[in-house]
Amino acid sequence: GVFYLQPHGPALPQPYSWVDASQLRAVSSLQPVTVHCQEAQLVVIVHRDLFGTGRLIKATDLSLGPAACPYTSLNAAENTVIFEAGLHECGSTLQMTPDFLIYSTSLYYNPSPARNSVIQRTNPAVVPIECHYPRKDNVSSKAIKPTWVPFSSTISAEEQLDFSLRLMNDDWSTERPSSAFQLGDVMHIQADVRTGNHVALRLFVDSCVATLTPDRASSPQYAIIDFNGCLIDGRSDDTSSAFLSLRPRQDSLRFMVDVFRFAGDARDLSYITCHLKVTAVDQAPDPLNKACSFNKASNVWTPVEGTRDICSCCETGLCGVSGGQNFMAIGFPHTGDLSVKEADVMVGPLLILATHGLPRNFPEDQREAMKLVTQGI
Questions:
Q1: What is the pTM of this model?
Q2: Residue 149 in contact with residue 222, Cβ under 8 Å?
Q3: Of 123, 237, 303, 312, which is the most buried if we count CB atoms within 10 A?
C-alpha cells in the first residue's frame, strides 16, 4: 500500500496494459497530498488542512525525504505548501525492476509544540510516495493520473514460474484496494504461482514473518507461518488465523490472519514476507511440504490435504527431521536445469491502525495512497 503514480498518454507502454482507465477512482476536490511525477523531478503539493479538521498546519513542520528538504514555495490563496525536488534529491531511493525505475521517498509532518507547552494536538505523520517509470519507453512530461494500487510482490523464477502474494477482499473475489487495517480486522492473503509450461504443481507457504521494515531478517519480527507450513499464529488463544481448507487451484493457497501490531513500538507500517515453494501435484504432502492449521474445537493440527500425521511436528517444531523427501529433489521430469522452485515474496507496507478511522478528508478510495502514520502524542 503505497502511492503509485503512473504516467499516461496517448500510447501507454506495455507494462501499463493492465491498468483499466475506467476503473480509476475519482479524486476528491480536496486532496491532502498531490504528487506529480515529472521527467526529472517530483512535485508534492500539501494542503495545510492536512487532517481535515479546519486547523492549518505550519509549513515549516513539513519536510521531504530523509534529508528533510524544506518546502519550495507557498500558495496562500490555496493554503498549500509546494515541494519541488529532483528524483535523486532529498534522500530518495531508486529501485530497478525488469520493467520499472521506482523512486521512493516520504513526506514528513513533525508538529512543533507551542511555545512553553508540554502538549501537542496533532500527531506526526508520514506519507510514503513512489514514482514508477517504465524502463523501456521514454517518460512523458504530459499530465499524469493517479491510480490507487495495492502493493504486492511477484518474483519470477526461470522457466516461467511467477510467485506472488496478494491481499484479497473478504469474499476472495478481487484484490483488496487498500492495505490499511484496524485491530480486529482479518487479513485475507492469497499466494499463487503461475506455472507456465511446467507439469502441474502444488503451491505451499513454507514460512511467513512480519517485520517493521522490508528486511525479513530485521528485529522485531513475528512468525505467522513456520516449520514448513504450520500456521502457528492460529495456535494462540485469541486468534482464528488459518489456511482455507479448499484451494481455488493446486497452484494457489489462501489463508487468513487476524490483524496485529507490534507491542511497544509506535510504528504503524509493517511488512509480511513469505517463503513460497512448489511440489509436483502428484507428490503426496509430507512434513516438509504441507499447509497445517490448528483446530481449536478439536485441539489438533489439520492439513489442507494429506494425512493428519504430517502436521504432528507443528507442535514440536521438529519438522525438518521427519525423513520426508525434499521438494527440490523429486517430482519434476524435465530437460535442462530446473533452477528456482521457491522464492521469498512480500506484501506491504501494511498500515495497522490502533484506533478507528483516518482523518476525515482521506476518502476510502485514497487510503491506499495516503498513509498517515500515527506516532503517538
A1: 0.52
A2: no
A3: 303
Please say if the pLDDT value at position 179 is more than 80: yes
- Contact status, residue 367 vs residue 358, Cβ threshold 8 Å: yes
Task: Give tens-digit pLDDT for 54-113.
Answer: 778 889 999 999 999 999 999 999 999 999 999 889 988 888 777 778 888 999 998 876
Q: What does the DSSP 8-state code read for residue 313?
A: H
Q: What is the 3-state secondary structure (H, E, C) of 198-236?
A: CCCEEEEEEEEEEECCCCCCCCCEEEEEECCCECHHHHC
Residue 132 to residue 61: CA distance in whole angstroms: 27
Sequence-distant (6+) residues with CB within 8 A of 164 are: 152, 153, 154, 155, 191, 192, 193, 194, 345
Of residues 255 and 185, more confidently modeled: 255
Which three three-digit cell numbers place residue 301? 493440527
311 near 317, Cβ under 8 Å? no
DSSP label of 368 = T
Q: Give the CA angle between residues 42, 164, 133 to the nearest 5°.
A: 20
pLDDT for the residue numbered 130:
86
Averaged confidence pLDDT in the chain? 75
Q: Identify the bridge partners of residue 249 per DSSP, sorted by sequence position.
A: none
Bridging pattern class, strands 180-182 and 342-353 = parallel
Label the pairing between strands 3-7 and 125-134. parallel
**Grid coordinates given for 248:** 481455488
- Alpha-carbon dihedral sign for residues 267, 120, 356, 236: positive
> In Å, how far are 54, 70, 101, 141 from 60, measured between CA atoms?
18, 7, 31, 29
pLDDT in tens, 46-60: 999 887 777 788 899
Fill in the amino acid letter for 19.
Answer: V
> Which triple of cell numbers denotes residue 280?
509436483
Per-residue pLDDT tens digits for 118-173: 445 566 788 888 888 876 544 433 333 333 333 444 444 334 578 999 999 999 99
> How far does Cα 201 stand from its chain's mean position?
26
- Report the alpha-carbon angle 149-155-158, nearest 5: 145
Residues 340/97, Cβ–Cβ less than 8 Å: no
Report how far residue 322's alpha carbon sits from residue 44's, in angstroms, rounded to the nearest whole number: 56
